[in-house]
Specification:
Helix content: 40-55%
Shape: elongated
Number of helices: 16
Radius of gyration: 45 Å
Structural class: alpha+beta
Oligomer: single chain
Distance between the termini: 99 Å
Largest sheet: 6 strands, antiparallel
Strand content: 15-25%
Strand order of the largest sheet: 3-2-1-6-5-4
Length: about 500
């Protein structure tokens, strides 16, 4: 067989090996044996770059025609690292060109010369493994003969190096893809959140272990089925389908990328609260979506427990306020009123003693001031009129005593729940105190109305503005009181005035 036909046969055999294998580690032993045997050479080795700052080439695979004679040289080669330009593989790797040595035993740049001499090896050639990003290694062959360079063989190795390089690049890319897919799968399966992927028809494509545990389905049961009929409650399915169809038709996204709290449904039909985030998978082709869901049953229960605790705390505070107000009214106030009557009787009995009369009159005046202050203190702790007659009369009294003129625009004409009346009363009182102290306003307006199942309290003024919801302990305390009832407290303050608004749901 002519040299040209032999080289063509080698290229054909190499192509078959590369077509039948998928991994470089699997192909290298076959390549070395096929090329070495076809050429009648004794030893072959694959050298791959190590990468990193101290880049070099390292022998990763060997082939020996005579295992007994060449085993030690193979072990030496497998333990060798060659920097760029060192040894036959290092020279080829750095130059990116094939190279030939007539006798490696006498070559000054062949670090394994002693081992080659002991193995009886002489001539050697090496060619680069080329990829699109450059040379990634080299393949070396040695023979026991002294042999001059064969230019035709070296030219053939250029083609072999490119073939093998393309295969290496492809196999590495496929291995990296498999690794990514395995890692992706492991992440999906180990994720604590439920991960559900659907296609453009709304059918389930992926259903991870957390989703299986949370919703009570095996993945095999749901893949290929419409997600809406599996985990969306019947009352919400049409709305879900309508929104999904609208997005596919118009591209209008209302919930994509947003964290929502919705209701999910388990396999047994029970419903529970979930937190949901939906993202579109950024891949070409028909749209696909991934939903990240989390069972928030425990969190919701904790929130309910916290709200109940805050309501109990506010209720206990109001009860204590009422107790203090009653104690002041029934105790200290009554004693002071009794003392005033006693002083009046005493004055009538000493009407002919001017000095004593003057002292008694002064004591009565001081006593009246003390009574007034005590009544004001009791009213601030908890106004009796609020408990006895309701919110409207109590606020009328607040407006009458206000240092700033107050217009009562609207007030409820019926009794509200006790906790809501107390919250509304203190919101108005604190707001009017702030108006008097800080706003430099000519007047204030108060309105309390029921809107969509909520009680909305508004206090506005025409003052200087500058108020902040978290600007003082008074407003912060009001916010806590309102939020304990699932309400919201908002402050809208501009240079033209301030509006304090509390919205509390009726229960």
């Amino acid at each position: 067989m002519s040299a040209q036909r032999r080289f063509l046969a080698i290229e054909h055999e190499v192509s078959l090996i590369l077509a039948e294998t998928s991994a470089a580690a699997e192909a290298y032993p076959k390549l070395l044996q096929t090329v070495g045997t076809s050429l009648g050479w004794d030893f072959g080795a694959v050298w791959e770059e190590t990468g990193g700052p101290d880049a070099s080439v390292r022998c990763t695979e060997t082939w020996c025609a005579d295992e007994t004679r060449l085993a030690e040289f193979a072990r030496t080669s497998l333990g060798t690292l060659l920097p760029p330009g060192h040894g036959l593989p290092g020279r080829v790797w750095s130059s990116a060109a094939p190279a030939w040595i007539t006798d490696v035993q006498s070559d000054p740049n062949f670090p394994r010369a002693k081992a080659a001499a002991e193995a009886g090896l002489h001539a050697g050639f090496c060619f680069p493994i080329r990829t699109a990003r450059g040379v990634v290694g080299a393949i070396e062959f040695l023979t026991s003969k002294l042999q001059e360079p064969d230019e035709e063989l070296l030219a053939t190795t250029e083609s072999l190096g490119s073939q093998i390089g393309q295969f290496v690049e492809r196999s590495r890319a496929e291995a990296a893809m498999r690794e990514r897919e395995a890692r992706h799968g492991a992440i999906l399966e180990s994720a604590l959140d439920c991960i559900v992927t659907i296609d453009d028809r709304g059918r389930v494509v992926e259903f991870n272990a957390a989703a299986e545990q949370t919703f009570g389905y095996e993945a095999e049961e749901v893949v290929g089925r419409e997600m809406a009929e599996i985990i969306v409650p019947p009352s919400l399915r049409e709305e879900h389908r309508a929104g999904f169809g609208r997005y596919l038709e118009t591209g209008e996204a209302r919930i994509l990328g947003h964290r929502l709290e919705i209701t999910g449904m388990r396999a047994d039909g029970s419903e529970f609260p979930v937190e949901l985030t939906i993202t579109r998978i950024p891949l070409p082709g028909p749209p696909a979506f991934t939903g990240f869901l989390r069972d928030i049953t425990e969190r919701k229960q904790a929130e309910r427990d916290l709200r109940a605790s805050r309501v109990r705390l506010v209720g206990a505070q109001d009860a204590e306020r009422r107790r203090l107000e009653r104690n002041l009214h029934d105790g200290a106030q009554q004693r002071l009123v009794s003392l005033a009557l006693t002083l009046r009787l005493a004055r009538d009995g000493v009407s002919d003693d001017a000095q004593t009369v003057e002292l008694i009159d002064r004591a009565q005046e001081e006593l009246q001031l003390a009574l007034d202050e005590l009544r004001e203190l009791a009213r601030g702790i908890h106004p009796a009129v609020l408990s006895e007659r309701g919110l409207a009369p109590a606020l009328q009294g607040v407006a009458d005593r206000s240092a700033v003129p107050v217009e009562l625009i609207s007030l409820p004409d019926k009794r509200l729940p006790e906790a809501i009346e107390a919250a509304a009363y203190y919101v108005v009182c604190e707001a009017l105190v702030n108006v008097a102290k800080h706003a430099n306003a000519s007047g204030a307006r108060v309105s309390i109305a029921e809107l969509d199942g909520r009680v909305v309290v508004e206090v506005s003024d025409d003052g200087l503005g500058g108020a902040e919801a978290d600007g003082g302990s008074g407003l912060r305390g009001l916010a806590d009181r309102v939020e304990a009832l699932d309400g919201r407290l908002e402050v809208d303050s501009k240079a033209t005035g301030t509006t304090l608004r509390a919205s509390i749901p009726l229960r």
